[in-house]
Amino acid sequence: MPKQIKIIIGDLSLKAELFDTETAKKIHKLLPLESMINTWGDEFYFEIPLNMPLDETATTDVNIGDIGYWPPGNALAIFFGPTPISNDDKPVPASEVNLVGRIIDDARVLKGYKKESKIFIKAL
User: Fold this and answer.
1) Domain residues of the chain, as ranges?
2) How confident is the prediction for the chain on average, in pLDDT?
């Protein structure tokens, strides 16, 4: 069963969920997390203290609102629009990510928060 989480950036608070996968469960155990945000197009990513390989959910086919774990950077990635390698409005990660969750609210509002530097993620 998915686990409910909250993502906080600046004055914005978004409801999200982590899926029932091994990688997502390990991420949930790390909560709460606070990190500096890196931006790549309309993607936020940030390193977390977790080292996991690609799993059965690994893909480059992601959608706005998806949350992925990117093994090469030990990072969580939040997709809210096109990235530098997108051909249209759909996000494309730099390489495969494990799909670990999704934002329940409208992730596109994150476009207005690209100047923020910190992200907080906590369990609900």
Assistant:
1) 3-123
2) 98
The number of beta carbons lying within 10 Å of the beta carbon of residue 44 is 24
Query: What pLDDT sits at residue 73?
Result: 97
Cβ count within 10 A of residue 120: 14
Which strands, in side-by-side order, build the sheet including 12-18?
A: 33-36, 118-123, 3-9, 12-18, 98-103, 66-70, 75-79, 43-47, 38-39
Cβ atoms of residues 19 and 99 within 8 Å? yes
**Token pair listed for 113:** 């928060």
76-92, pLDDT tens digit by residue? 999 999 999 999 999 99
Question: Hey, what CATH class is 3-123 in?
Answer: mainly beta
DSSP conformational letter for 2: P
Helix (H, G, I), strand (E, B) or coil at 111: helix
Tokens 């596109």 identify what position? 108
> Using the 8-state DSSP alphabet, how is residue 55 labeled?
-
